[in-house]
Design a protein that fits this description.
Number of domains: 1
Strand order of the largest sheet: 1-2
Structural class: mainly alpha
Largest sheet: 2 strands, antiparallel
Helix content: 40-55%
Number of strands: 2
Shape: globular
Order of helices and strands: HHHHHEE
Distance between the termini: 10 Å
Number of helices: 5
Length: about 150
């Protein structure tokens, strides 16, 4: 059996160290996450926005990734520049509170879109009410849809 090496992209690789550290620090301070977990959340938030730029499905972050998304959006100039670079337009955030849009199905679809776009998805950050929304099978971190 031949093992295939697959290089998955990270959200962290899409931004400067300064921006990454600032967003992670914001999540750490304002959401009470350890710095290590805040960095993982920030990584997923950048990957989420980059995927949403070209996604053909509605994108809905998990609760934890949403913390990183909000922290990134509050870096308004950097967020606008990132959107312009990756989407060619500003990506608005429409939280639609109380509409029940953050369902297991919606978050799973988003995690799978990120995997299909070649991003590493950190499964433990993609949950809805304690249910894992990222693991489509026992894929051990392979991009979604990969048979290898």
């Amino acid at each position: 059996m031949t093992a295939l090496a697959i290089d998955l992209k990270t959200g962290r690789s899409l931004v400067t160290t300064e921006l990454f550290d600032s967003v992670a620090h914001f999540v750490h301070v304002h959401n009470g996450q350890s710095i290590e977990r805040a960095e993982r959340i920030a990584d997923q938030a950048f990957a989420f926005v980059a995927t949403a730029a070209a996604a053909t499905v509605p994108m809905v972050p998990s609760d934890e990734v949403d913390h990183g998304l909000h922290a990134f959006i509050l870096h308004t100039k950097a967020y606008a520049e990132f959107c312009d670079q990756h989407a060619g337009r500003f990506l608005h955030h429409n939280p639609a509170p109380g509409t029940g849009c953050r369902t297991l199905e919606a978050v799973t679809t988003s995690a799978h879109a990120m995997k299909a776009a070649g991003f590493m998805v950190l499964d433990d950050l993609w949950t809805v009410n304690g249910e894992n929304a990222a693991q489509c099978d026992s894929d051990c971190g392979r991009p979604y849809g990969s048979a290898a």
